[in-house]
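Much of the work behind modern protein science is quiet bookkeeping, done one molecule at a time. Below is the pair of lines this work produces for a single protein:

***
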Amino acid sequence: MIKHALVALVLLAGCPKKDDYTKGEPAVENEPAAKPAADRPPPPPPKKGPPADLGKCDLKLEGGMSGEQSSPGGRSAANVAYWYLPEERKNMMGVDGYVVNCHGDKLKFTLLPSGGTPDGMPFAPKTFTFKKGRSEGANVMLAIGQATLADASGIVAVTALDKRHIAGTVDLSGKMVPGNKQVKLTGSFDYVCPGFSACEFE
């Protein structure tokens, strides 16, 4: 009996009290309740990207040399300063403006800034009138193989320019050199911004 009593006392002495289990546990602080969904402003809608169809340029050349071409839009087709954020434009070379390329297997036509006044290519529609290859605010280039257009006369009209697209028409004549072959170039372009930082899509 004494032996059994001693064993019982040892077991009781070795069992921790209830207070021993909770002793030393960190106090649980009440976390602030989350705001109800109705009190939180909705997240801004994600910015829409460009459509799959980025537009095209259609050209027709007649006269001493001829050919027709349709070329697609994209990053190499249209580069517009106004499609970038102001801080990005500060790091760009040259004046504000745009480059429009209608490049295909047959024809390579380009409209590009000529420098001069800062508003030579404004963020608005504008008609460029060419006489003997010169126009205020813009230059044009046309190549067919090794032949290039000289003394271009006529107009390139930018009929629309906004945060979504640039569109216009081409009506030029001149001579291809070497060879002095008289030609007439007509056509139109409508290029959608390919997703530069300041572009906007509905």
Observations:
- Residues 34 and 40 are 10 Å apart (CA to CA).
